[in-house]
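User: Please predict the structure of the protein below. I'd like the answer in structure-token form so I can feed it into my own downstream comparison script.

Assistant: Understood. Taking the following sequence of 296 residues as input:
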Amino acid sequence: MVRIALATYDPGADVNHDRDLPVLVRALREAGAEVSALPWDAPGTEWGAFDLVLIRSTWDYTWRAEEFMAWVERCGKATRLANPADVVRWNTDKHYLGELAAAGVPVVPTRYLAPGASAGLPDDHEYVLKPVCGAGARRAARYAPAERETALRHLARLHEDGLTAMVQPYMASIDVSGERALQFFGGRFLHASRKGAVLEPGTPYDAEKVPHPGLETWQPTPAELGVAERALAAVPDPSALLYARVDLVTGDDGEPHVMELELVEPNLFLDLHPASVPVVVDAVLAAADAGSPRHA
């Protein structure tokens, strides 16, 4: 029997918001695995006792990025970690968008403003300002040119916290056609979903956002699949990926562009795609079996 840990976060007195977690725990146990869902920062956990540690919903990591990466490095040395530590390290900093662009992958145009850099905010179109290490639209906001002073205060706060900011044009197509999330698991396309706009005009950067408004199933176009596959091929050591989610939007040219590449702890939306559960379970069991001592 393989032993699998699903790494999540500690919700405290609240309910864990990972809706995939109980589905996966139940399905993996029914398939014969020994499964534990544990907060990544649970003290005293012997991660090396598991054949596989699957990062699922470590959704508080962006507030504690250095601590999280130290755990990722330790865990990756103790046992098989999915995704692996080098992939996680690369993906937690959205400078990777620049690398994708350099590799010829169409991405949303992105500029980076490190602490001490001049503002250089757009004055002729809406834009998004957010930190390079972030998830769930945390500390992100959408601005019109007339809101420059508010945006500058947002930028100053990010810089005060030692964070590099990123500036992207607001893709107006999101308000019409939404964002498309293409999920891959075990090296193949799994399913796709579409959601509406997350950033509403006037919403403060420190306000809580609804991360997946209007979520629905989606049938990706050949162009969307092609861009997603090109993005994954540009990842350092793409063969090491167990799971991936590619978030796409329509650019001004009418073609799909990468908004984000989610390789750390993406929602799988299994409640929306129940037919994907057996595929995910098979891939996880195969990865755990490959990491067990008999295959070491």
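That's the full token string. The first strand starts at residue 3 and ends at 8.
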